[in-house]
Amino acid sequence: MQYHLTAYALLPLCTAVVSAMLAFETWRRRSDPASISFIALTVLVSIWSFGNAFELSSANEATAFFWVRIEYLAIVSVPVAWLVMMLAFAERRNTLNSTWIASLLVVPLITTAIIWSSAAMPLFWREFVIETLSPLTVIRVERGPWFWAHTAYSYLMLAGGTFILVRSLVSATGFYRDQSLALLLGAAAPWLVNIFYVFDLIPRAFPDPTALAFVITGLAFSWAMRDAGLFELGPVAHREVFQQMSDGVVVLDPLNRIVDLNATAAAAFELPSRRLIGQPFRQIMANWPDLIDRYSDLLTSDEGTTTEIGIRVGEELLVYDLQVTMVRGPRGKLNGRMLVWRDITALKQAMARIELQNERLENQALALQEAKAAAEAGSQAKSVFLTTMSHELRTPLSAMLGYTDLIQYDIAENDTDALNRDLANIKIAGEHLLRMIGGILDYAKIEAGKMKLDLQTFLVQGLVVEALASVRPQIERNTNRLNLEIAADVGTMHADPIKVRQVLINLLSNAAKFTQSGVVTLRVWSTTDCTSMDGSEISAGQAASASRKPAMIFEVSDTGTGMTEEQLSQLFQDFTQVISSPPGQIGTGLGLALSQKLCNLMGGRITVESRPGEGTTFTVVLPTQVVA
Q1: Which residues make beta-bridge pairs with 308?
Q2: Count of alpha carbons within 13 angstroms of residue 53, beta-carbon side
């Protein structure tokens, strides 16, 4: 091969170098899918320009013809590379696949085969003459039919890519607009020059200037990469975003036929997109007729809306947020509807768990408030109890000390009658003090779990008489009448007599305390109890069985003040007096609570019935045979 140096070859040679540098720089930023096709384009431009530089420097026909063939390896491929790059750059990447790109290369491959085949070359060039016009080598050709087929195909590829770029340019802003303008300029310069050359609008004395126009292409592309962020700030592919959305999207025409949908929607319908496009939406939704019935108005309304829909799949309820948006033209004409749905099942489940947790927290807060109130009430009751006890203890002690002084005086005066009265009062005060202290100690033992039962067999009537003797003075003090009713068949019981007597004394004392000029009645009878000791009913068969337990019933009733339902609910609480004691008769608030605990300890129970102004009745049920 023979060459001669010429300054005219430096310009395409510089273009080849710049294009190669662009390809190298783009390779370093190849994360953008469009960058690969851009690399291919710049490499082909570099080959074209490099071949053109050597064509211009060729000293004979054989050398020039070789480099022309090298150039055409790039010339036939540049338009395809341009179209592929524009598709990748302007949101049409879903159309790019190896089969489709291979089909685009069929015409370039045929053209290359014709050019490199001596027998077939007349189809492309009927005549090929190289003239050396110092210092340039100029090719004179007569074009064949395949040349025009190749040219038409190449221009079609260039026009398709440019059309896509112009569409993107219309809606592009900022850096993206600058990128599109630079690419458009870089493609338009060599294309326009080539049109002028192919259609003999440039004097034939000049060589093909298309490769020289690539100087403008290189400068435009370089600016796009350096200053406009090409392949660093590439436009978002809206179509790819649409297809990759996790939300299902369906676009309907005015007749509610599917005109577009994304992959998520197609997966929900379990059909490929190509089979869904054009189908009536109601037909596609035939598997969910209840949804069509419930939400049919959404497909006929002229207004957009947002709602929630539920679909049961097996035992699981799936919840979706559905948004229907009207698609309107420039003059407000309805062009269709867009349905977007999002799976919010997990969100609803999380919200339900949060609501349940909030409800639990509210209940716990209420329970804490109630516990706090109960603790405060208990603390207040204990404070009242301590105040009352200090007074209760001080009163009999003061009386005992006072009567002691009187005894000393009576002894000095030898007044025997007065001395006996004082000693009797001291005994009464001492017994009262002993009962209070004993009640407090018994309560403390029960609370500590240290209370023991001293079980004995005793006559019930004798124990009742003893209890009445202890409270008779208190009953008579309020001008009350005592009524005792004991059944004839009442005999003995096996229990702790002290505890039973203590319960009766507490109940009779309360009845005497809150009754004025009335009647206090004590009834006693035995029975084969047909009710369990905790008050729950049992069947007649069970009552007739060997498990029937005899019971002793003690009923204390009065015609006193009575109690309300609210007072009854607080009756057996520790340290609590639901009714204020009459003047001069201060209670401790432990009597009824202690009586209930003693009954429970012996396997029995105590119940109460009362009405305001009609009196109160306490009923004690104890087993005839208490078991330790």
Answers
A1: 321
A2: 19
Q: How many residues does the chain have?
A: 628
pLDDT on residue 596 = 86
Task: Convert the pLDDT of each residue in 500-542 to its tens digit.
Answer: 988 998 899 888 888 888 999 999 999 885 454 444 443 333 3
Which positions ≥6 away from 155 have C-beta within 8 Å?
A: 79, 191
Structure tokens at 18: 């710049």
Q: Exposure of 405 by Cβ count < 10 A (0-12 exposed, 13-18 middle, 19+ buried)?
A: exposed
Residue identified by tokens 């431009």 is: 45
Query: 339, 261, 250, 254: which is closest to 302 by C-alpha?
Result: 254
pTM above 0.90, yes or no: no
Alpha helix locations (H) across 28-97? 33-56, 61-75, 78-89
- 108: pLDDT strictly greater than 90: yes
| 549: nearest Cα among 524, 528, 525 | 528
- pLDDT tens-digit readout, 352-391: 888 889 888 888 888 888 888 776 766 666 555 554 554 5
Q: Which amino acid belongs to residue 85?
A: M
DSSP 582: P
C-alpha distances out from residue 64 to 1, 56, 212, Å: 9, 8, 17
User: What distance in Å separates the CA atoms of residue 447 and residue 437, rounded to the nearest whole number?
Assistant: 15
- Token readout for 234 is 């590439």
pLDDT for 541 equals: 38
**CA–CA–CA angle 216, 221, 225 (5° rounding):** 150
Determine the Cα–Cα distance for residues 294 and 547; give it in Å rounded to an integer. 63
Average pLDDT over every residue of 415-421: 68
Strand partners, 537: 531
Handedness of CA 321, 326, 327, 330 (dihedral sign): negative
| CB 212, CB 15: distance < 8 Å | yes
Task: Name the band, by pLDDT with cuts 50, 70 and 90, for residue 445.
Answer: low
- Measured CA to CA, the distance from residue 64 to residue 57 in angstroms comes to 8
Q: Which residues make Cβ contacts (< 8 Å) with residue 221, sequence separation at least 6?
A: 22, 42, 182, 183, 186, 230
* Higher pLDDT pick, 548 / 484: 484
Looking at the predicted structure, is the pLDDT value of residue 13 above 60? Answer: yes
Q: Taking 80 as the threshold, does the pLDDT of residue 332 lie above it?
A: no
Sheet with strand 519-529: strands edge to edge: 481-486, 519-529, 549-558, 615-623, 605-611
Q: CA 216, CA 181: separation in Å to the nearest integer?
A: 13
Please, what sign has the CA dihedral across residues 505, 506, 507, 512?
positive
Quickly list H helices, 90-144.
98-104, 106-115
- Tell me how crowded residue 207 is: count the other CB atoms within 10 A of its CB: 20
Q: What percent of the chain is helix, strand and coil (3-state, nearest 5)?
A: 55, 20, 25
